């Protein structure tokens, strides 16, 4: 009889469809995506890479506030969102703004969110989502609650949430997956394992060989997937969604991925805790390069098409940052008004003081 841990490790071996060279290694599970859908997913990945580059530049210029780079995680983020329906509910972490944008958040509002403007946190009426969660792992508990609400209302939709490898060390992570499992709620929990929670490597976060196996304790399904493989991420998300809406319960998906930039633009220096050899190893797994090779082999993608997407992204970003610049500045009274439905006495006094200052 094999040791229990050895069996668990084998059970959670990484799932993959498209390898680093853009070759199919799992023909049976290739998702049923049309040529147009494959191209659309590629467009979104390229667009988001440009958005990341421009956002970093805008942050350095002082035109954006908080920003968490996303380059390297496009397959994990966008292929999972691509498998969702419009009425599914997204509960993102702070690095997951791209999913919100492609689900319907206007780009200028994403920029306002970065600046701390309240309008950046006001989701459009047709967008089922919360604003990005800054507290590590807190969205997991919220996702369990949203999913349970969907179940009680008889909705055929799912609640989808994301955290990083460091988020699995938080109590909210366990509480969220346990509650969803206990109530068989239609939730999909993503752990985007980019191997470093800021500067702490994943092997110091946990003794578990995979993060996917943490699903066992909650009695829910779990899987580890190549997070640089858009086809695998899409296929697994689609499977998890179908299970959930059919009453088969929640699922924990660990995507093995990598962030090419710093944790955030707030002074993090990844060269202090990541080696050049490690960076080079993951550069070879770039999800965009991999997917490009696959589409070119199918005669579905060209350099001209990619350049067109790049120029379109730059133009959209230019217009969006201009709109964000022109949006009415947030006032102190705006902040106070948005804190409470009914202001306590001390804030009522402050409100009057600031109204008088702002009127001058």
Q: How would you describe the overall organization of this protein?
A:
Strands 1-2-3-7-6 form a 5-stranded parallel beta sheet, with helices on both faces. It has a two-stranded antiparallel sheet with strand order 4-5. It folds into 2 domains: 4-329, Rossmann fold (3-Layer(aba) Sandwich); 330-360, no CATH class. α2 (35-60) crosses α12 (303-326). The chain is 47% helix and 9% strand. The mean pLDDT is 95. The protein is an alpha/beta fold and 360 residues long. The protein contains 14 helices and 7 strands. It has helices spanning 4-11, 35-60, 74-82, 97-103, 107-114, 138-152, 171-182, 215-218, 230-245, 276-283, 287-297, 303-326, 332-337, 345-359, and strands spanning 89-91, 159-164, 187-193, 196-197, 200-201, 221-226, 251-256.
What keyword list fits this structure?
alpha/beta; Rossmann fold; 2 domains; two-stranded antiparallel sheet; 14 helices; 7 strands; 47% helix; 9% strand; globular
Helix-strand layout with pairing:
Blueprint: H1 4-11, H2 35-60, H3 74-82, E1 89-91, H4 97-103, H5 107-114, H6 138-152, E2 159-164, H7 171-182, E3 187-193, E4 196-197, E5 200-201, H8 215-218, E6 221-226, H9 230-245, E7 251-256, H10 276-283, H11 287-297, H12 303-326, H13 332-337, H14 345-359
Parallel strand pairs: 1-2, 2-3, 3-7, 6-7
Antiparallel strand pairs: 4-5
Helix pairs in contact: 2-3, 2-11, 2-12, 3-4, 3-9, 5-12, 6-7
């Amino acid at each position: 009889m094999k040791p229990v841990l050895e069996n668990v490790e084998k059970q959670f071996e990484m799932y993959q469809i498209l390898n680093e060279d853009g070759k199919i290694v799992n023909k049976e599970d290739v998702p049923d995506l049309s040529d147009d859908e494959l191209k659309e997913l590629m467009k979104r990945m390229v667009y988001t890479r440009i958005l990341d580059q421009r956002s970093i530049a805008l942050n350095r210029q002082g035109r954006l506030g908080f920003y968490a780079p996303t380059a390297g995680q496009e397959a994990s983020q966008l292929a999972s969102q691509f498998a969702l329906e419009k009425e599914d509910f997204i509960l993102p972490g702070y690095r997951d703004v791209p999913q919100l944008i492609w689900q319907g958040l206007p780009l200028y509002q994403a920029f306002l969110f970065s600046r701390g403007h309240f309008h950046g946190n006001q989701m459009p009426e047709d967008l089922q989502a919360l604003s990005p969660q800054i507290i590590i792992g807190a969205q997991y508990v919220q996702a369990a609650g949203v999913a349970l609400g969907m179940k009680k209302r008889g909705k055929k939709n799912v609640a989808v949430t994301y955290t990083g490898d460091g988020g699995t060390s938080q109590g909210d992570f366990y509480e969220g997956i346990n509650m969803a499992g206990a109530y068989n709620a239609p939730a999909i929990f993503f752990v985007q394992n980019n191997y470093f929670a800021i500067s702490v490597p994943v092997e110091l976060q946990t003794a578990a060989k995979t993060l996917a196996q943490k699903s066992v304790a909650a009695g829910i399904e779990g899987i580890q997937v190549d997070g640089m493989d858009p086809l695998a991420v899409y296929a697994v998300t689609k499977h998890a969604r179908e299970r959930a809406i059919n009453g088969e319960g929640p699922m924990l998906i660990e995507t093995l991925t990598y962030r090419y930039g710093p944790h955030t633009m707030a002074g993090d220096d990844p060269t202090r805790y990541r080696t050049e050899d490690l960076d080079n190893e993951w550069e070879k797994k770039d999800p965009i390069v991999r997917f490009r090779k696959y589409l070119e082999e199918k005669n579905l993608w060209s350099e001209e098409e990619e350049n067109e997407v790049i120029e379109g992204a730059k133009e959209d970003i230019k217009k969006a940052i201009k709109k964000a610049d022109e949006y009415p500045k947030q006032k102190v009274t705006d902040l106070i008004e948005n804190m409470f439905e009914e202001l306590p006495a001390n804030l009522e006094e402050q409100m009057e003081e600031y109204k008088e200052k702002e009127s001058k």
